[in-house]
Design goal:
By secondary structure, the protein is mainly α. Helices cover 68% and strands 3% of the residues.
Amino acid sequence: MAQNAKQVPEGKVLRFTGGERLSHWVHAASYLILLFTGLAVMSVTFRPVMAIVGGIDNARIIHRVFAVVFVVIVGLLFFIGERKHHWSWLRDVFVWTKADVMHVKAFAVEFFGGHGNYPPQAKYNGGEKINSLITIFGTVFITLSGVIMWFPHYFPIGLVRLAYPIHDLSMIFMTAALIGHIYLSLLHPESRVALQGMVKGHVPEAFAKAHHGAWYEELQKEEKS
């Protein structure tokens, strides 16, 4: 904590490291490109827009290139650089506490502009854990089904047919989560401050105390030790 404090402005708290931010933005950017090109491949309604990239054939190539970026680049960040933060996130979102459940119960109030009544939260609160789990399972299913669709001759025909609806459903769930994520990051009166953490790395202490009180207290203990 003391080492990181030198890099954080007065009154701010380090929320995400450079490696965590890189992983987030690579994942987000590649997913948006995959969504854009995938919709064009899936529906004729979107195909005229593909003139931007030179037509539907180019859209298919771009889709496959960024499918590799989506999986390989983010996957590599779990094994190089600041890998401990990625593994810590992966572990934490699968560990649920009573505080997380209470946050989820109060999330409707939080989502529509209020501040829910819940106990101090860890680095990732209940709502963020749900978003992370949708991202994790959505990524797994969309990747596995995508591989089957890309190389259909290596798989049974029944599995190939099943891959298409799984791919589409994964996209729908992930996109719904993305829309909610964007709303909370850009428009929500209280939580939009969190975007600073993914852009600059740090957030105001007041925000950390209000939304991640348990995590903030841990940071204070580390700083004093």
